[in-house]
Design goal:
This protein has a domain of 74 residues: Cytochrome b5-like heme/steroid binding domain (Flavocytochrome B2, Chain A, domain 1, Roll), CATH 3.10.120. The chain contains six helices and five strands, in the order αβαβββαααβα. The protein starts with a helix and ends with a helix. Helices cover 53% and strands 12% of the residues. By secondary structure, the chain is α+β, with helices and mostly antiparallel strands. It is a single-pass membrane protein. This is Cytochrome b5 heme-binding domain-containing protein. It is found in: Endoplasmic reticulum membrane; Microsome membrane.
């Protein structure tokens, strides 16, 4: 009988602690939500460069600049999602739970949904244009062409100077 009364009081205290913890969690969530900054779409759309990249996903704004080099799909994927609501792009890929958890550290605020346009006007990402003449493959192709010509010219020069003497 003594144990039953202690067990009941332990259950009562445990239930009260659980309710208190739940209330604290809800209050903490409300505090965090009220402290978050609300960004205008125009402001977020300006951050569309490799060195300064913000995304809108599910009504939240993320500064993913530090993640650009680490993103498995490359920085082009992130840049193509700037200047619009990237929720569909994000969800279509099927990101893992760990990717969703990782997003929390890049969270910088909420988007003012009234400023998000219904139709998106395309704003190309600001990055250096691709120049195929500066790729290593191009240099190799040029060398594959020039080296045989140089050898042929050297052979003719040697033959010409050795023939006269």
């Amino acid at each position: 009988m003594l144990f039953d009364s202690h067990r009941d009081s332990i259950y009562t205290v445990s239930a009260q602690l659980s309710r208190d913890l739940l209330v604290l969690c809800v209050q903490l969530q409300q505090i965090m939500a009220s402290d978050s900054k609300v960004h205008l779409f125009e402001e977020v759309a300006k951050h569309n460069k490799t060195q300064d990249c913000w995304l809108i996903i599910s009504g939240k704004v993320y500064d993913v600049t530090p993640f650009m080099d680490d993103h498995p799909g490359g920085d082009e994927v992130l840049l193509s999602a700037t200047g619009k609501d990237a929720t569909n792009d994000f969800e279509d890929v099927g990101h893992s739970d760990s990717a969703r958890e990782m997003m929390e550290k890049y969270y910088i605020g909420e988007i003012d949904s009234s400023t998000v346009p219904l139709k998106r006007t395309y704003i190309p990402p600001q990055q250096a244009p691709y120049n195929p003449d500066k790729t290593p493959e191009f240099v190799i192709k040029v060398l594959q062409f020039l080296v045989p010509l140089l050898i042929l010219g050297l052979a003719f020069a040697v033959r010409h100077y050795t023939k006269e003497k």
